[in-house]
Amino acid sequence: MVSGIVTAVLLVLFLAGCIWAYSPQRRPEFEAAAREPLNDDDAVATAARETRQ
């Protein structure tokens, strides 16, 4: 009985997390996070060029 309740609670939490993560309100934040590694590479390349000059 208890394991069934725990399973149901965990399923509800998982579904709530999926809904939260894939909600349209979160899209800009996730897109910014996805671009972050590329932005860091640009900053490193710019800094490398500045040190060579």
In short:
It contains two helices and no strands. The model has no long low-confidence stretch (mean pLDDT 87).
Describe this structure in words.
The protein contains two helices and no strands. The protein has a domain at 25-53. The mean pLDDT is 87. The chain is an all-alpha fold.
Q: Specify the structural class.
A: mainly alpha
Fraction of residues in helix: over 70%
Whole-number average pLDDT? 87
The description of the largest β-sheet is:
none
What fraction strand? under 5%
First-to-last CA distance = 71 Å
- The secondary-structure element order is HH
Count every helix, treating DSSP H or I runs of 4 or more residues as helices.
2
Tell me the number of strands: 0
Shape field: elongated
Write down the Rg.
Answer: 21 Å
Low-confidence stretches: none
Task: Please specify the SSE layout and strand pairing.
Layout: H1 2-21, H2 27-52
Keywords:
53 residues; mainly alpha; elongated; 2 helices
